[in-house]
Amino acid sequence: MSFLSLTDADREAMLAAIGVSSIAELFRDIPADVRYAGPLDVLPALSEAELTRHMEELAAKNVVDEVTFLGAGVYDHYVSAVVDSVLQRGEFLTAYTPYQPEMSQGVLQAIFEYQTVICELTGMDVSNASGYDGQTVAADACFVARAATGRSKIVVTEATNPQVRETLVTYARGFGMEVVVVPHEGGVTDPARVREAAEDAAIVIFQQPNFFGCLEAAPDLAAAAKDAGALACAHVDLISLGVLEAPGNYGCDLAIGEGQSAGNYVSYGGPHYGFLAASSEHIRRLPGRIVGQTVDQTGKRGFVLTLQTREQHIRREKATSNITTNQTLLALAGLVHLSLLGPQGLRETGEACMALAGYAKEQLAARGIEPLFPEQTTFKEFAVKLGRDARDAVRSARATGLNPGLPLGRVYPGYDDALLIAVTEKRTVADIDRLVEVLAA
Amino acid sequence: MSGAADRPLTTDESDAMPLIFEKSRAGRRGLAIPNPGLPVPAVPAHLARKSAPRLPELAEPEVVRHFTKLSTRNFGIDSGFYPLGSCTMKYNPRVNERLVGLPGFRDIHPLAEDESVQGALELEWNLQEILRAVTGLDAVSLQPAAGSQGELTGLLVMKAYFESKGEGAQRRKIVIPDTAHGTNPASVAMTGFELTPVKTDARGNIDIEDLRGKVDENTAGLMLTNPSTLGLFDENISEIREIFRAVGALMYYDGANLNAVVGISRPGDMGFDVVHINLHKTFSQPHGGGGPGGGPIAVRDILEPFLPAPTVVRDGEAFRLEHDRPQSIGRVRGYSGPFGVFVRSYAFMRAWGPALREMSEVAVLNANYMRVRLQGAYDLPYDRLCMHEFVLSARNLKKEYGITATDVAKRLMDFGYHPPTVYFPLVVPEALMIEPTESEAKETLDAFCDVMLEIAREAADDPEVLKTAPHFRPVTRLDEVRAAKEPIVRFGFGS
Fold this sequence. Notes:
The complex is a heterodimer.
Chain A: H1 8-18, H2 48-60, E1 67-68, H3 81-87, H4 90-93, H5 105-122, E2 126-127, H6 136-149, E3 153-157, H7 162-175, E4 178-182, H8 191-197, E5 201-208, H9 218-227, E6 231-236, E7 254-258, E8 274-278, E9 291-295, E10 301-305, H10 312-315, H11 328-366, E11 381-385, H12 390-398, E12 402-403, E13 406-407, E14 418-422, H13 429-440
Parallel strand pairs in A: 1-12, 3-4, 3-5, 5-6, 6-7
Antiparallel strand pairs in A: 2-8, 7-8, 9-10, 11-14, 13-14
Helix pairs in contact in A: 3-11, 5-11, 6-7, 8-9, 11-13
Chain B: H1 60-72, H2 94-100, H3 103-106, H4 118-135, E1 139-141, H5 147-164, E2 173-177, H6 183-190, E3 194-198, H7 208-212, E4 219-224, H8 237-246, E5 250-255, H9 267-270, E6 274-277, E7 297-299, E8 311-315, E9 318-322, H10 339-352, H11 356-374, E10 390-393, H12 395-401, H13 405-414, E11 421-422, E12 431-434, H14 442-461, H15 463-467, H16 480-485
Parallel strand pairs in B: 2-3, 2-4, 4-5, 5-6
Antiparallel strand pairs in B: 1-7, 6-7, 8-9, 10-12, 11-12
């Protein structure tokens, strides 16, 4: 086995030093009735060359050679080679949680920089070191809100990613909280209905831009939550925050989201990173790791994991969450990506997406394929009415090597003829012209 | 050239390293964005960004240098020995990084129709089959993102099971030994159960008498790490199983220490009904400086209906995600799980095949060898054969010379080692928890043990050198109290 260094002679010498006669004897504390006698019933071992061939065969069974407009929460944005290269540094890749700061200043400083970038983008005061994904950070936000308000109702808009809502329902059962959904009207949410639902609520969660790609009246939704004494929580797309206002600047207490669009590949859904940022009053209620700045004995700046008395390894059942391992490497990818973009690149990315999506919307309308919610302003994603079953349309489009988007009926019953189309800066005018031809055919 | 040779090569190691924001200059950029040459639709004024976020502005070469420099101030398993107990810091095969980057894995969308991701689903299904074989259980959910989320998922599955039997209100208590990871009680609190702590006996097993008095018809189950965080296999596991079976309660296996027993003892055979597997520990997903991880759970057949949706199923030669699971607890995260983690762990499993048993054997051999070399110089509170890790105590050094586990840990850095886990488990004062894994050569183990013995001698002869360690890192000991008292958790941009 090429991952093992011990020779037979090593093993004999070590067994002798321990004072046992065989490897089997090392396991004598395991009662006979729970020992496993048989050979492990798993697939046979492969050499590196065989393994590579096997994995290439599996990968070849997945379709990737198509132009895609599929988004719905996970987006095909460009990832720079610099991101790949930094993530392959063994000192980052093969380290663990920086419990020993003098040994881990690299990743601690990177997390501090990540926290700063997330705060800048969201307009919030504090960020944790990352959560699992854009779904679970919503549940984390509810746990913060329950502690902050003493209330147990979660209000979430129907136009929030269905997977986020489903995850909330699962977690809420454990938290002893209830989930109330506010329906959308014409693709966006009415702040008055949010105000009504938010009575006695701990938190109001809405997505901006929402799952349909539409821009919500986010400041009014936040105000409705606050008016009812609930925390206002926006679920946002980092890539949008060069052109769209930061949640902290319109009164949100919490800002969360899926970080994938900034620096991570789509990768069949993970691993990605969730981000969670808050106003400073919630700092001691935040889940997960937080890195803080301090000084060493000579007064030199350094970084440590801080506020650890919130965490499970100290507080145990009174902790603010059970999180230990989070998504540091993916968050690092996000930091590298956003550092390359800078404010100008982020804005240009958002504008390129909007321009291309606007063009697609226009060209489709010119061929009789109208937006599902014609009144609304959209960002990089929008829904259209096809006038036929969207699943069929996707099937025939994919036969031509183009994936036109998500049949909305898969997640919103009643919208069987609607298609959700995402346009990133990687698409071209020619790609969109093809999309239009395929859908209008 | 004059003088250059006299200076250390890494002068900046002794200076504070600038933050990327401090290197920023207005107008620089590191990535050009394609300009489609189309008009940009307007954003309504009240929704538009008013002031630009202060992201760093650097050209690409400086971004690469910044992160490369940061990496040199970090330490991974690639850098050297990393015996961080309970974390299973083993070698991460390089081929896995190449495989996870195959476009057929990297570029597939999680909402793509099942027929266009058959390879991904086949990989997930194969992974489930291996996890079933390793755990001795019937069904698997790959969804949980990490061990602690596996715990939360498993507890919700147990809750749903009791609710389906009409015992939801009655079964409130989860029994957890005092040696448990903090995640266990935290997960109990997050899932609305009540915690019942149980003591550890003089041999490091669960105290059976204490346990008997605490398990009754209100008990939902046990959460146990076996081998425990002391690195000891609970010799009374069969008796424990009978105590929980007798009252109709379930048993949850925290798989954090599975690296000790793969192919040697299966949690299902020990009597456990739910198991989480830390793919980033036993199955070599790189730890990434604190994630990503993977925390699939395996369950006994009676619990299968409650697993999160979707699950991966096989119909003849085809694979699909099954969403329609009426008794499921629902979704615990996005999509079917952290797929890139599955690619790496599956590749790792296929590289070993049935020899995964040898992986555990060598991990246990390495740990026991280090244990016998170090006991004597350090206290060994539980003097037994250990499994894949063992816990020493520096209390002898503290009593005689005022040297703590922290001092030992910091001094190890001077010799180029990552320290063991310290001050855990809580039942051992001045704990030093050492886990070598199977990856290490005997020479590495010997060299580390020599240093540990040298440090014990230094405690007597030159305690000051320990108390002031580390001496050769970019920073000396950091003021953690100050960090927590007045938290600075983001750059202030000079304000």
